[in-house]
Amino acid sequence: MENQNLTVPAAEKVLSWGMTHSATSPVFTPSSAEEVKKIFQYAQTHNKKIVFRGGGCSYGDASLQSDGFIVDMSLYNKIIDWNQITGVIRVQSGVTIKQIWEFIIEKGFWPPVVSGTMMPTIGGALSMNIHGKNNFKVGTIGEHVLEFTFLTPEGEILTCSKNSNEELFYSAISGMGMLGCFLEVSIKMKKIYSGKLDVIPVPTKSLQEMADYFEANYQTSDYLVGWVDAFAGGSSLGRGLIHKADYIPEGKDPDFKNNIKLENQNLPTRFFGLIPKSWMWILMFPFSNHLGMKLVNFAKYLSGLILTKPYQQGHAEYAFLLDYVPNWKFIYKPGSMIQYQVFLPKETAIDSMNEILKLCQKRGLVSFLAVFKKHKPDNYLLTHSLDGYSMAMDFPVTRRNKKALWDLAYEMDEIVIKAGGRFYFAKDSTLRPIVAEKIFSKETIEKFKSLKKKYDPKQILESDLYKRVFLS
Ligand SMILES: Cc1cc2nc3c(=O)[nH]c(=O)nc-3n(C[C@H](O)[C@H](O)[C@H](O)COP(=O)(O)OP(=O)(O)OC[C@H]3O[C@@H](n4cnc5c(N)ncnc54)[C@H](O)[C@@H]3O)c2cc1C
């Protein structure tokens, strides 16, 4: 068979984004569909497992493969076509959200869905079907995809849309990269007038107050996100701060020509005009413990009570707040971190989230950063979204707390299962098969497995996440 002579790179250590998982494996870096095809052929003939990797921004083990090859798609990164009239962009799947927004903003467009970081690739974003702070309004990224080409492990290239190969369309998007490789993707961008958003900060005393605000305002908001002080207990349990943001309508921004310029969008390089961004995590380091983070969360809540005036903020600043501090995750060193994000139906969400916050406090393992969002259901096979709310919680992982943290995650799983909730593979580090079986219906898991058999009959696509949740 051809391509048996593909040179296999030396193994290297690759980390998950949260630095908790790792794999030491050969990493291929193809820059064309032909090269990906050759890797598939090689894996088929040599009985090797492979996983794709985009920006490596999944918190857990989604883009790791410890017993095979990692195929890093980040060099497959050309913007192929742009239509100024329709706002449709066609890109290779290794193109990042950063590349896209920087390319389109001065043309008067913005990506319809972005994550809290701009570093994911489109292939990675589709595989997990990412959501933004506007999920309640515009759905997940899949809703904005017009078409993609898809290379199956058998070497076939299929064109998928909502009207053609629709079963594959709705399962490859959300399919954790387990059915094949996204090649070229066409996505419709959102037309914008100004480079700024109108932002309103709203402090809230409890999760219930936060949810009430979301319910009262979601129909008239473009973006809504809540930060939650996970350390606050007693009558302050679930207190937080909402940031509502809206596009500025045409004619309402006298400085729109200036505001939309790329140079005025980019995140500042220094804090307070003085401290280089790259130093910031070092300054945050002394606070990276239970007491320090309790203080930081309290200070944030306090500032939310004082700074209540509406203001304007650039799209990038609002969307990618976490990118403000490069390498902020290093504050968790010499340990690492995981994120545990729960998705709960709106009827049970607040009670269950309160229960989760109390449980974390009782166990002495409190989330350093907790974020609240509103969602809406969609039709993607392994969807995480539903008609309700999510709370994403960042936890430090140390050698000493790891066992207790995993036990806590299992306890929280029970609360989520009982409440009819879901999880999100992009954020997951702790999920077990027994939980996956309860959150997805039996039919959903069987359908996914039968699609996997159809498109990947030799089962060469396998991530550490897939092994952990579906095969172990
Ligand atoms: C700071 C931070 C904030 C975040 N905020 C959000 C948020 O607000 N909303 C949200 O939804 N997510 C969020 N995420 C998660 C992130 O958006 C997802 O994990 C996303 O999938 C990462 O894309 P990636 O390109 O880095 O893919 P990776 O993490 O490298 O891989 C993700 C999956 O995609 C597969 N894959 C990658 N490329 C391809 C391809 N070409 N073809 C087939 N499969 C492929 C991989 O095998 C893997 O299963 C955040 C992550 C971080 C680190």
Summarize the structure.
This protein has 472 residues and is of the alpha+beta class. The chain has helices spanning 33-46, 97-104, 122-128, 135-138, 166-172, 207-217, 256-259, 280-284, 290-306, 315-319, 349-363, 402-418, 433-439, 442-455, 464-471, and strands at residues 11-15, 22-28, 50-53, 69-72, 79-83, 88-92, 109-110, 145-151, 157-160, 181-188, 190-191, 196-204, 223-228, 240-247, 270-271, 275-276, 311-314, 336-345, 369-375, 388-397. It folds into three domains: 11-73 and 451-471, 2-Layer Sandwich (Uridine Diphospho-n-acetylenolpyruvylglucosamine Reductase, domain 2); 79-191, Uridine Diphospho-n-acetylenolpyruvylglucosamine Reductase, domain 3 (2-Layer Sandwich), CATH 3.30.465; 196-432, Alpha-Beta Plaits.
In this entry the ligands are:
flavin-adenine dinucleotide
Tell me the number of helical segments per DSSP (H or I, 4 or more residues long). 15
Q: What is the overall pLDDT average? A: 95
Shape, principal axes of CA atoms: globular
Strand line-up across the major sheet: 17-12-14-13-19-20-18
Largest sheet: 7 strands, antiparallel
Please state roughly what percent of the residues sit in beta strands, choosing from under 5%, 5-15%, 15-25%, 25-35%, 35-45% or over 45%.
Answer: 15-25%
Number of DSSP E strands: 20
CATH class of the largest domain: Alpha Beta
Tell me the CATH topology of the largest domain: Alpha-Beta Plaits
**Oligomer designation:** single chain
CATH structural architecture of the largest domain: 2-Layer Sandwich
Ends: how far apart? 32 Å
- Which structural class is indicated by helix and strand composition? alpha+beta
Tell me the domain tally: 3
What are the low-pLDDT stretches, counting only 5+ consecutive residues below 50?
none
Helix content: 25-40%
Alpha carbon gyration radius: 22 Å
